[in-house]
Amino acid sequence: MPLRYQNLKRIWKANEMDVIPASERERRLLIKAMNLSLGVGFMMLLLKFGAYWMTGSAAIFADAVETVVHILAVGFASYSLRLSLKPADPSHPYGHAKIGFFSAGVEGALIIAAAVFIIYDAISKWIAGLHLENLTLGVGLTAVTIAINGALGIYLVVLGKRSGSIVLEANGKHVLTDAWTSLGVILALGLILVTGWLPWDPILAILVAINILVSGYSLIRRSIAGLMDEANPEVQMLLEDVLDKEAVQKGIRYHALRHRSLGNGGYWVDLHLLFADHISIKEAHERATEVEKKLNAALPRRSRVTTHLEPKEAHRQIHPDPH
């Protein structure tokens, strides 16, 4: 197996027990993490608007606005996380995990809206005339928010990847974006303190907004890919590598191989297996089950593999058009 597929498999297996919550304890852990994010968001909002009220800084205002968007996004993400953890039911036989992709898209759209507003506000204040005060205190409060958001963001991203929760991972990345935004604010205020040139404030606010735009686009791109069942080339090649070996060992062929992300870290794979006509249904089913086990072993723990059995010799007569 090529090295990059071995690495991909190694990453999956290292997180195997946490790919998707398999117990009520794990479910509570994910929900607790989201609630923590929401609580910290409100605390950050108070600190940042307090710093803006004391300084009048466009950069700090940009940071505070981003936090407002973050709180709105976390509220929706919290609902999405709870829904994604629900098991499959008659109305949703494939489960509810795909809500995570929709949640990431909403969060990305909110981030982009915030960035556009920040740019507009920074330019408006620049034109109207700049006036700043209490910059040292503003830098101190902003530094506190960086430390808190940095620690929270890393925790959420790590937990999201381990659990296979795109909702939690997207939220963690948004928190880290918030921390980078705050770092840009400190840079702006520091430059003003050193140089005395006030335009550093709106300039850094605009640069922060551009960084936020990139983060928002990334989330929307990932959301669209998941909702549209975009294939993962590495996963496809990994599946083909396993199947090529199994086909040789078991004297079978395969085609119509497809896969899609389930939205919880796992994949749904389906394919057709072709067997010699003389093989009994029982034996063909046993071989197909072995192939399914091999594929499941190569994929994240909560993946599913479905095979359709067909005869080799009569295949062209049954299916005149190859597929």
Task: Describe what this molecule looks like in 3D.
The chain is mainly α and 323 residues long. The protein has helices spanning 3-14, 24-55, 58-84, 99-128, 135-163, 166-195, 200-227, 233-250, 281-298, 315-318, and strands at 253-261, 267-275, 304-311. The chain folds into two domains: 18-227, Cation efflux protein transmembrane domain (Alpha-lytic protease prodomain-like); 233-318, Cation efflux protein, cytoplasmic domain (Alpha-Beta Plaits). The protein has ten helices and three strands. A hairpin with a 5-residue loop joins strand 1 (253-261) and strand 2. Helix 3 runs parallel beside helix 7 (200-227). The radius of gyration is 25 Å and the shape is elongated. Residues 3-7 and 9-22 have low confidence and may be disordered.
